[in-house]
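WARN retry 2 of 3 for item q-0093 after timeout on previous attempt; input resubmitted unchanged.
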Amino acid sequence: MESNRVSLFLILLGIAVSLVLSSPAATATATETKLVREVCQNTSLMKYKDCVEALNDFRTGNITDIRALAFLSLDLARANSSEAVGFVRGLSVYAPSELGSVLKSCYDNLLYSHMNFHVAVGDLMVDPMTANYDTFVAMDGVNYCRNVMKEAKVSIPEVEKRCDNVEVFVHLCYTTTGMVGETSPEAN
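OK item q-0093 returned
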C-alpha cells in the first residue's frame, strides 16, 4: 500500500512539473514600461529579469502610478502564494508518511506568507510603510519552510520552487510598497 502511495505521489509530482514548465507564464516576458523598469531597477534583492517576469500581467501596461502597481504586485503575490499553499496542501494528501510533518509545516508557513500579502493590501490603503513591513515579514514563511526541509534532510524540488516564487513576490512587493511609502504625504 505504501509503495502505491509513493508511486502516485511521484506521478502527481511529474504531472505538476510538466504543467509548470509548459505554462505560457513560464516563458512570457512582461512589457517593460517606464514604471516597470523603475521598479525593477530598485529591486536590489532579486534579478532584474525575475522582477520583469513577475510583473508579466495584461494589466501592467496600463499602469502609470506606483500605488496602482503596488496593488497589482500584491494581487499577483496573493495569487502566486495561494497556488503554492494549494500545491503543498495537495501534495501532503498523497505524500509518504515520512514527509507529512514537513509538508504540514511548509503549508502552515506558506499560508503565513499568503496572509501577510492579504494584510498588506488593506494596510497599503492607509499606511504604505506598514504594508511594506507586512511584505517584509512574508519572507519568514518561506524561510521557515526551507529550514524545515533542511532540518529534515529532505529535498522537495517543487516545494522549493514555490518557495523561490513566493520569495520573488516578497522582494517585488517590498520594493513597490516602499516606493509608495516614499511618495506618500506621510513620508514628507
